[in-house]
Write a structure and sequence with these properties.
Layout lengths: L9 H7 L12 E9 L5 H13 L11 E5 L4 E6 L3 E8 L17 H6 L3 E12 L7 H5 L8 E5 L4 E5 L9 E7 L4 H22 L1 H27 L6 H43 L2 E2 L6 H95 L6 H30 L1
Helix pairs in contact: 5-7, 6-7, 6-8, 7-8, 8-9
């Protein structure tokens, strides 16, 4: 079309809303999901993905691709690169047998799985099966979860039931069971995707909980130190203030170091927790009699941990502000003391200047007297010399008359010199 050229990011921004599309899910279907934390920005994950595609005889994907979906024959794969982790979702339509009797990972080369780098933060299985006529009793569902207490609800306007126990089983994987009551392929994919995201973001949010425990203890120690320093400030003298300021500065550096090391983790936990809440709302849960919904379970179990993280983050910020206020108060006291010392120094300098002025005036008077004395002496010698040459002069009279004249002239000359020097300076 004859329209101006596209912005360089137009296509990228437009396609962002289509990124990471939901995968269609048939019934029955087994899904296995892995989320691996990486330390190298995802380079190792991209390399592992390339090895798998080569092994399965498929074209190697671009290493910088943020997400990849491919049918590799024995299984389908959905791979995604996230900020802190890479995720692998394996789909297998081998739905024979009881739920969780097998896994979608059974079709994946085991040596390739063992070669994956990173640390497993989430490993979960999702089984999508056709629902029987009536929703099974809780004890029947619990048999698929090692008879653990389960939570569950109907979702998507009653078109499916989901169950889980949020536990890691002997196979090192957690479990979700989805009973399909007429979802369809795309809605089933959305439900599975939301369940996986709930599990993933729940675990990613909880990464901040151990940090909160550690930082909380250090913050408590820092608060006690600040309280002690504040009490010492109340009765401190001028000589104690520099030492107090140094201790406050060291405490502020300690707290800022804690904040810099934990701020990202707390911020990420806040974002992940909000994502968990959003995905639970998207499920549109309806209660099954006798069972907690996933939303209720999260509010009772996840929310307290997140509240702890929020509390520690808030205490950390408040402690920084308290230290800043105490430092400002102490610096103000130090500055006032310095201003008083400077004022005293100025008073002393003014006193010394006045003494110097008086001394200068005394020296000037002595200088006028000395110069007059020598000048009058010279005039007297000149008068005596003239008298010896026959000039009728009374040398003593000439000498006496010259004294006031010379004194006035010398005084005026000294005054002129002083004014000239003052003006030039």
């Amino acid at each position: 079309m004859p329209i101006p050229a596209d912005h360089e990011q137009r296509l990228v921004l437009n396609d962002e809303v289509h990124a990471r599309p939901y995968t269609q899910v048939e019934v029955p279907e087994r899904i296995a999901f892995l989320a691996l934390l990486y330390r190298d920005g995802g380079a190792s994950a991209a390399g592992a993905l390339a090895r798998l595609f080569e092994r399965m005889g498929r074209p190697v994907p671009q290493p910088d691709a943020p997400h990849i979906t491919a049918d590799l024959g024995a299984f389908r794969l959905k791979w995604e690169r996230h900020t802190e982790f890479a995720s692998y979702t394996f789909f297998s339509r081998d739905g024979a047998g009881a739920p969780f009797a097998s896994s979608a990972l059974a079709a994946v080369p085991s040596d390739w799985l063992e070669s994956l780098s990173g640390e497993t933060i989430v490993a979960t299985q999702v089984e999508v099966v056709t629902a029987p006529g009536e929703i099974p009793a809780a004890w029947e569902i619990a048999q698929s979860f090692a008879n653990n207490p389960i939570v569950g609800a109907t979702v998507s306007s009653g078109k499916a039931c989901v169950f889980t126990d949020f536990r890691i089983h002997a196979d090192r994987m957690s479990r979700f069971l989805v009973l399909d009551r007429g979802l369809g392929r795309y809605p089933a994919g959305r439900v599975v995707h939301r369940l996986i995201e709930i599990e993933t973001y729940r675990m990613m949010a909880l990464l901040a909980f151990p940090v909160a425990r550690t930082v909380g203890g250090e913050i408590s120690a820092a608060e006690h130190t600040l309280t002690a320093l504040t009490a010492r400030m109340a009765g401190a003298g001028v000589e104690d203030e520099p030492q107090l300021l140094n201790e406050l500065t060291r405490l502020a550096a300690t707290v800022e170091s804690l904040a810099s090391s934990s701020k990202y983790r707390f911020g990420a936990a806040r974002a992940y927790h909000e994502l968990v809440r959003n995905r639970i709302r998207d499920l549109r849960e309806e209660r099954i009699p006798g069972l907690q919904t996933i939303g209720e379970f999260m509010e009772r179990r996840l929310a307290p941990a997140m509240n702890t993280c929020e509390s520690v983050a808030k205490r950390q910020d408040e402690l920084s502000m308290r230290i800043a206020r105490s430092s400002d108060l102490l610096r103000t006291r130090v500055e006032i003391d310095r201003e008083q010392q400077n004022l005293q120094m100025l008073v002393q300098m003014n006193r010394r200047a006045k003494l110097q002025l008086r001394l200068q005036q005394t020296v000037e008077g002595l200088s006028v007297a000395a110069i007059t004395y020598y000048a009058v002496g010279l005039i007297g010698y000149l008068a005596k010399a003239a008298k010896s040459l026959g000039v009728h002069l009374d040398a003593d009279l000439v000498t006496g008359i010259s004294i006031p004249v010379v004194a006035v002239l010398v005084a005026l000359g000294v005054r002129y010199i002083r004014k000239t020097v003052t003006r030039d300076s």
